[in-house]
Amino acid sequence: MGMTGQISVSKNPAVTNAGDEKQHKEAERKSQWKKKYEREDWTWLLSDIRGRRIVRILLEKTNTFGVSFGSGNDSTNYNEGRRSVGVQILKNLNAYKPSAYVQMLEEKEKEL
């Protein structure tokens, strides 16, 4: 509890004391580094044909653009979990290099 008798709550799990400005600054610094590395990693992955091929295969294997409905609830839930992973991959692709998706499709056509 804080000095006023109220419980300090933070939306950031890295901050254990919402009233501690030092913890907030450190959490923000780590968050910025994480975003920077994620952007650099996705840019690197999508800059090479091998990386794009891996991403394309993952999108296919996770049935990102397919239907999740299965023969029962368990099957549907499982399929939707897989698809959810693919959707997150697609969001990252679109956030960091949207042109890579069309490029992946063109490269797939050349492989066939």
Written description of the protein model:
The chain has 112 residues and is mainly alpha-helical. It has one domain (21-111). 68% of the residues lie in helices and 0% in strands. The protein is built from four helices and no strands. Helix 2 (49-61) packs antiparallel against helix 3 and helix 2 crosses helix 4 (99-111). The longest helix has 26 residues, at 21-46. The radius of gyration is 20 Å and the shape is flat. The model has no long low-confidence stretch (mean pLDDT 88).
Estimated structural class: mainly alpha
As a whole number of angstroms, the C-alpha radius of gyration is 20 Å
| String of helices and strands | HHHH
Q: Into which percent range does the helicity of residues fall? A: 55-70%
The outline comes out as flat
Average of the residue pLDDT scores: 88
Number of strands: 0
Q: Tell me the span between the first and last alpha carbons.
A: 64 Å
Architecture blueprint of SSEs:
Blueprint (H helix, E strand, L loop, with lengths): L20 H26 L2 H13 L11 H24 L2 H13 L1
Helix pairs in contact: 2-3, 2-4
Short synopsis of the structure:
By secondary structure, the protein is mostly helical. The protein has one domain (21-111). It is built from 4 helices and no strands.
List keywords for this structure.
112 residues; mainly alpha; 4 helices
